[in-house]
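To: structure subgroup
Subject: Chain for Friday's discussion

All,

I'm putting the inputs and outputs inline so they're searchable in the archive.
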Amino acid sequence: MAAPVVGRFPRPAYALARAAGWLTWRLRAGARARVAGNLLPACGGDHEQARAASLRVFQNVATYYVDLATLPYRKPTGFEEEHLLVEGEEHVPSLFEPGPVIIVSAHVGNPELALVAVAQRGRQWVELVEPLEPPALGRYLARLREAAGGIVAEADVNGTRTALRQLRAGGMVALVADRDLAGAGICVTLLGQRVLLPRGPWELARRTGARVVPMFAARRFADDQTVWIDEPFTVSDQGEREEAVQAAAQRWADLFGAHLQRDPGQWTVLEDFWGVHACG
């Protein structure tokens, strides 16, 4: 019931979301400590910096839901010019050249707002998302996300098939690669820690020959964001499959780690990341 109101009047909703994030941060000491622990490697071991950054995480989590509510009411025309600052402009054409493309991002900022600009430029995509409980909630959020201009599929067997069809038709797939939900990830080094990251993006890229475009976002205020687009690369289909997948995952992890160090408070992961995904 609140989403249509929030979507039509986003400015006060963004302010309320920031206040709700601050209040939750103050009241949930355990969650606050867990998030600060996630950010500690990105903060160079500085506990005070990690604690301060954890407040921005809680506020950004709350703000993300305002973003979703606004998607059905946004006008794509002019969105990029008004709300996005793009770093790595020289890599933007790689998103629109012929052939399959996989945008690989993470839970930083809100990459879905960047996809509004992709739709504005005339390209549709398939977005793979985490299954939610109850399923009705997942379906409702999928409808909100699809208002950005793409097709939303859950990151399961059926969703993977949908993504494969999209890529083999020369289309675009967007996904996040910082949480291994399937439990069958690949062990990489991220900020000096050994963790499991999903292997799905790299398997898809190897099987289809798709260009991988790393994209990371950072919220400046409300729905204004900076978007970093890094140099595209491909996953080699030569030699051992596991070596190729490992090399691609590690390359992306290095880029992701550098982004986290720029602004740790953008990483909206609330679980004990280093404990849940530890390996090696």
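Points worth raising on Friday:
The first helix runs from residue 2 to 8.
The chain has a mean pLDDT of 95.

D.
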